[in-house]
Amino acid sequence: ATARQTEVAVSCVGIVGGLGVGATVDYYKRITAACKARDVVPDLAIVHADVDKGQGFVREGRLDQLADYLAGFIERLERAGAEAAVLPAVTPHICIAELRPRIKLPLINIVDVIGAELRTRQLKRVALFGTTFTMQGSLWGQLSVVDIVKPHPDEIAFVGRAYQRILDTQRGHDEDTEGLRRIAAELRRRDGVEAILLAGTDLAVIFDEATAGFPCIDCARLHIDAIVERLCA
Predict the structure, then answer these.
(1) Rg (Cα) of the chain, in Å, rounded?
(2) Which residues contact 220 (CB under 8 A, 6 or more apart)?
(3) Do 147 and 124 meet the contact criterion of CB atoms below 8 Å apart?
(4) Which of 8, 118, 202, 216 fits a disulfide with 20 by CB distance 3.0 to 4.6 angstroms?
(5) CA distance 146 to 149
(6) Residues 82 and 51: beta-carbon distance below 8 Å
(7) Residue 119 CB neighbour total at 10 angstroms
(8) In the predicted model, what is the mean pLDDT of the chain?
(9) CB contact set of 180 (below 8 Å; sequence gap of 6+)
(10) CA gap 53, 40 in Å, rounded
(11) pLDDT digits (tens, 9 = 90+) for 159-195
(12) How far is residue 145's CA from residue 123's CA, in Å, rounded to a whole number?
C-alpha cells in the first residue's frame, strides 16, 4: 500500500450485515474497491443479523419488533465507533418510521438515495424487483417522486420465489434470470415502465445494470456510492 492508502477515512460507517449475506459481501467488496480507487482506507464496522428472523418479523407485520431487533445491532455499531449506520437490504427499510426514534446514529437510507437518482433522471414510471414484501408494498409510500407500477400477482410471486432462492443459495439460477428478463420486458410493453429498480440488494448475485438485459437502476450501487461519500468525507 502507498503512504496515501494507509490514511484512515474520517468517518466510520457501521453495517448491519446478514440481512442478505450475498448483499453484505457485495457491499463490502464494492465499498472497499471504491475507497481504494480514492486512496482511502475505509473505516467500517460490521455486525451480523439473522435474515430469517428479520423476514419473520416482516411477514408477521411486527414492525416494532423488527425495529427493536435492528436497533440492538445499531447500538453495538455505535459502541464500536460508527458515526452512521447502513442496512444493506431494502426490505428492512419497511420499519424506518419505527426505527428512527430508537437509534441515535443517522441512517444512510437507501430509499432517500433512490429518490435522488430518480429525480436526477426525471423518470416518471418504474417497477420494482425484490422481495415479495418490497414489491407488494411499493416501498411503503416512502418514494413519492414516481409512479410505481406493481407487476401482476403471478409476476410478483415469480420474482419473490426467485429472490428467495438467491437468498437461500447465494447463487443465480438460469430459469430465474430468464424469467426476470421476461417479466421486465412485459412491464415495459404492457405498462409503459421506463426502468426496473433492482430493489433487492442480493440481485447483484445474478446481474447488474450492465448485464441485466433491460433498463434498470441498481439500488445497491446508489446506496454504496452514498456510503463511500460518507466514508471519504
Answers:
(1) 17
(2) 23, 26, 27, 30, 88, 198, 201, 203, 204
(3) yes
(4) 202
(5) 9
(6) no
(7) 11
(8) 92
(9) 129, 159, 162, 206
(10) 35
(11) 999 999 998 888 888 999 999 999 999 999 999 999 9
(12) 9
